[in-house]
Amino acid sequence: GENVEQHPSTLSVQEGDSAVIKCTYSDSASNYFPWYKQELGKGPQLIIDIRSNVGEKKDQRIAVTLNKTAKHFSLHITETQPEDSAVYFCAASGNQFYFGTGTSLTVIP
Amino acid sequence: ETGVTQTPRHLVMGMTNKKSLKCEQHLGHNAMYWYKQSAKKPLELMFVYNFKEQTENNSVPSRFSPECPNSSHLFLHLHTLQPEDSALYLCASSQERQEYSYNSPLHFGNGTRLTVT
Question: Is B42 within 8 Å of A100 when comparing Cβ atoms?
Answer without folding.
Answer: yes
